[in-house]
Design brief:
heterodimer; A: 221 residues; mainly alpha; 7 helices; 0% strand; B: 315 residues
Chain lengths: 221, 315
């Protein structure tokens, strides 16, 4: 296959990553949110593998496999177990209504496009145009953490942010050194376990996983 | 090119659109009956309905103004004008250069505006309710369809439908994220514009859910026939607009008779497939609550905007 077609596939996958980010932003049900997170990881993993092939950087294959095993299989499984154990069934409430959140998301995409424009001018990599999408994914993950009240959805937002950072590293510099990536992957895994333990503690203490409940911990001045 | 040929192709295309549109609606209805395990009335049922309505008398309310009587003719004639502009079977049309894609959308919007006015004209509760709902849907659907159209125009480097069709049908099939997003947005909006499930149910007369049916509830006889035929044409034309923007392969570029015949044949195949997809969507989904429509059409707008953004970022 020629490079042109591969570059097109790559940007198509980047568009799908962005689409899943928006879908997560608009999703109310937590089970679907976990599934969407897995899809995002899958697109990211394929994208990384294609980038590795285009750039002939073989360590990207390893990061791709790492993403596949961690973010498509392991983390969604852990989250799923958490959701089942914590008996979360009802739809999640958001702070803002969903169309407004989506409009903010679009504004964030345009903002990150402008922010990465100088890098695009300087860079010669084939993946340089996907950097804007990566940055937008980080920001949409952050937006999701801000607009959700529920602890588990906030964690998914955090993990989506991490996806965006990984994507940014791949598209800006063909990935970080393998040691760093292994370290980050381990960190995320450990973080997921710790989050799980925390969730159980929070839900037994407050009878709810809504972050608003924690305001009762604040001292009155 | 010979102007006589252009006029001849034009007339041929309008006639084909007028005759095939009811069959397309009939085809969708028939497939729908089959998927729901019912016996169907066949593809020809819409023709029989229209023919029956044309011979019936018109019953007009006493307080009906000229708007009420004028609207069916207006709705039908805007559909005919649109049918003469969209390259359905051939790119060599006499009137095609006279209007671009934005004019087309405005034409459909004007027809919808008059339908809403006519719904309120008699002063019955259902008509007003239908009109208000229709306007709410229109206010959400039109930005989305325009955004989707803009994406296509950006990629085709023109808002002229002819130019877009020529550009796309010449090119090879490529992965273009912007076009894919625009196409998804277009499908979502066409469902709303044509009044299909999950936005509106064309087969219902239940007062809680009807939108288009509520507006035309007071019509009878030849007026109703024109309104129904107009609605079928509207659905058909939106689908052919989608074909022209996203699947333009096979639309005749010359006025060779064989090529035009092949174009008609290909169009029928595409329509048959699209009808199947529409039926799959309609049987798979339940009609949405009216106030969930903001999210449905918001998603369409988001897709279309992502298409525009993807065009600038990724291409």
């Amino acid at each position: 296959m020629n490079l042109q077609v591969l570059a097109q596939i790559n940007s198509f996958l980047a568009a799908l990553v962005l689409l899943t980010a928006f879908a997560m932003l608009s999703q109310r049900k937590i089970n679907s949110l976990v599934i969407l997170f897995a899809w995002q990881g899958l697109f990211l993993s394929i994208n990384t593998a294609v980038t590795g092939f285009v750039a002939a950087k073989h360590h990207l294959y390893i990061s791709s496999l790492l993403t596949l095993s961690l973010k498509v299989i392991l983390l969604p499984y852990i989250l799923h177990v958490l959701v089942v154990r914590l008996k979360i069934r009802k739809e999640m409430e958001t702070i803002m209504n969903i169309p407004a959140t989506m409009l903010i998301g679009i504004a964030l995409v345009i903002f990150s496009y402008h922010l990465t424009a100088p890098v695009r001018e300087m860079s010669t990599l084939i993946t340089r145009s996907t950097l804007a999408v990566a940055l937008a994914t980080v920001m949409i993950g952050l937006l999701m953490m801000i607009t959700r009240k529920h602890a588990v959805t906030q964690i998914i937002g955090f993990l989506a942010m991490e996806n965006g950072l990984f994507f940014a590293a791949t598209s800006a510099t063909y990935g970080m050194p393998l040691v760093v990536e292994l370290g980050v992957a381990l960190d995320v895994l450990i973080a997921a376990f710790i989050f799980g333990i925390f969730f159980f503690q929070i839900s037994t203490t407050f009878d709810s996983l809504s972050v608003e409940q924690m305001e009762s911990l604040r001292e009155d001045n | 090119m010979n102007p006589l040929h252009l006029i001849f192709t034009e007339i041929l295309q309008v006639l084909i659109v007028l005759t095939v549109a009811p069959a397309f609606t009939g085809w969708v209805d028939m497939l729908k009956c089959w998927t729901q395990g019912r016996a169907s009335a066949g593809v020809m049922q819409p023709y029989r309905n229209i023919a029956k309505l044309f011979v019936k008398d018109v019953v007009l309310a006493q307080n009906a103004s000229w708007i009420f009587r004028f609207t069916p003719y207006f709705v039908f004639s805007t559909a005919v004008v649109a049918a003469s502009v969209i390259p359905v079977i051939s790119m060599n049309l006499f009137l095609a250069p006279s209007a671009d894609i934005i004019v087309l959308i405005a034409l459909f919007a004007t027809a919808r505006f008059f339908t809403a006015l006519a719904g309120m004209d008699i002063g019955t509760a259902f008509g007003g309710m239908g009109s208000s709902r229709e306007m709410m849907i229109a206010s959400l659907a039109e930005p989305a369809i325009l955004m989707s159209i803009f994406t296509v125009s950006l990629a085709g480097r023109s808002t002229s439908l002819l130019h877009i069709v020529q550009t796309f049908s010449g090119g090879v099939l490529v992965f273009r994220p912007s076009i894919v997003f625009a196409a998804i947005a277009f499908v979502l909006v066409v469902i709303a514009e044509a009044g299909r499930i999950p936005v509106d149910n064309p087969a219902t007369h239940l007062e809680l859910t009807m939108v288009h049916e509520a507006m035309i509830l007071e019509y009878s006889g030849r007026h109703l026939a024109l309104m129904e035929w107009g609605a079928m044409l509207r659905f058909f034309l939106f689908v052919t607009l989608g074909i022209a923007c996203f699947l333009p392969w096979g639309i005749a570029a010359t006025d060779n008779v064989v090529e035009i015949a092949a174009a008609v044949f290909l169009m029928l195949i595409k329509l048959a497939v699209i009808g199947g997809v529409v039926v799959l969507i309609e049987t798979g989904l339940a009609k949405m609550r009216l106030f969930r429509l903001t999210e449905f059409l918001g998603a369409a707008f988001l897709m279309a905007t992502l298409g525009v953004i993807a065009f600038f970022i990724l291409e």
